[in-house]
Amino acid sequence: RETEEKYVFETEVSKIMKIIINSLYKNRDIFLRELISNASDALDKIRFMSLTDSASMSTNSNLNISITADPVARTLTITDSGVGMTRQQLKDNLGTIAKSGTSEFLSKMEESKKDDVSLIGQFGVGFYSVFLVADRVTVASKSNDDPAQHVWVSDAVNDFTIAEDPRGNTLGRGSQITLHLKEDAVEFLEPSNVESLISKYSEFINFPIFLWKGHNETIISEKSETLESNDDVEEEEIDSEKTEPEELTEEVWEWSQINTQKPIWTRSPKDITEEEYVEFYKTFTKSNDGDPIAWSHFKGEGDVDFRSIMYIPPRPDANFYQSLASATNNVKLFIKRVFITDDVAGDFFPRWLSFLKAIVDAEDLPLNVSRETLQQHKTLKMISKRLVKKALDMFAQLAKNDEKKYSEFISHYGVALKYGAIESQSHRKKVASLLRFRSSQNAQDAVVGLDHYIERMKPDQKHIFYASGMTIEEIEQSPFLERLVADGYEVLYFVDPIDEMLMQNMPGYDGKSFSNIAKGDIKIGDDSDEAKAEHKELEETFKPLQNWLKSTLSEYIDKVTISKRLATSPMAIVTPEFGLTGHMEKLLAAQGM
Ligand code: ADP
Ligand code: MG
Known about the structure:
binds magnesium ion; elongated; 5-stranded mixed beta sheet; alpha+beta; 9-stranded mixed beta sheet; binds adenosine-5'-diphosphate
């Protein structure tokens, strides 16, 4: 029998432990996520091994995780039937840090001084987080590669010991982590607390998680049961004369599986009902503000392996249009069914799409990848590209299949799409096709898409006409509109402040350029020779008036021309083609520019 040996923690481990204990006490319940995640990894490993070596499973064939608390000993124990650790592995894995990005993380933490919970939370603190809640931890572990079961023990002060387990091989295979809880961490002895943590962090773990817990059961005393089950009439009469059957409640303790549902995104979309999608939306967003407008459930395959469900929420978050930063908590990232973080929205969606809520479950990312390396991970970039494309597909589908829902979508997110058309070079055409505007044909609702508009263009029409204003009324009173509308041309109504910006960034669509009817001399189409001659005549006739106006108003105007665009108004003041429109001037003035 080998003797117990004492080892000193690697300096980096000691540093990490100090940081964890000092800065994460408010989020200390993450220890359970870390332990379950490690157990799940260990189970993944043995399951993988058994693919090529079926005998490896025989040492313990039930793949699961079980959790139990002992209030008398004040311990919480997490047991898994995973791959386990040899003596050497216990020493290496739980005494050193092999994790990439650790030193980077350490120097950042030392710099920041503050309790930078977000930093450490993203980093994935791993096993050492047990010392948030425990002052003494024992890890018993049995690997197929070691004839003996060993126990690792530490009280987080500089060193740990490893010895052969005096109880012998109790595990068959796997690991058992026992936390001797700190006095102020006794809440984790309460099964209902542990259960809600499991639900929070690990509902979607691939292996069953069992919790030892009690529940009240109503027991009807044996006597009355016999009487009730007896058909004999006489006996029943006797029964009715007796007192009521005795009801007792008894606390029954048993293993109960906490994570019962297979993660919804791993299931086939055709087996999932609308209600299930809606319920899942509400659960994972913890929201109660109605049903999502639409969703898309898909699988990325080939160069990047992941699954995702993304939702269009019933309405944008209150500060979506105010804040310039990408929304947070909108995307939940899982790696191989293990919840990693929900602070990655900006990594997956450009700002203008960050109103979407999504879960992403990636196969090709390492668990506990640090925040810094996560952002640089090329897998993440590839996933992001797919998500954006899928989001645009989802919008296009909705536009095609459900007019009512699409107009609801546009009413909430139309402005976000316009931002998209401005910001995204690569998706501008697609995003532009999704935009909807009011127009001289439907001033009430934003339903006119650029494709519809172009389909309806008159044969001689070269440009997409638009008019800007603060309100529909203002636009409709504009003298510039009359002639075009009278001649049967459609004019888009731009009433969103962002529309002018959109025009500056989107010179055309599908080969047609936009033409602001309030600017310069708009060209409707090619003039016939006859029209040209007529115009020439008019110019001759009004030359004297033109000259008089020009000299009288020289302080205020650039030039006076004979216009083709007015129908009933005698005269209009316009801005030059390359100048600011009146509307834009108002906008800039409002912003103090
Ligand atoms: P990470 O999980 O990122 O590797 P941890 O600090 O959580 O970092 O765990 C360190 C290592 O300890 C793991 O990589 C694994 O090799 C080992 N380990 C931890 N828990 C278990 C377990 N339950 N079964 C087997 N090995 C484990
Ligand atoms: Mg881990």
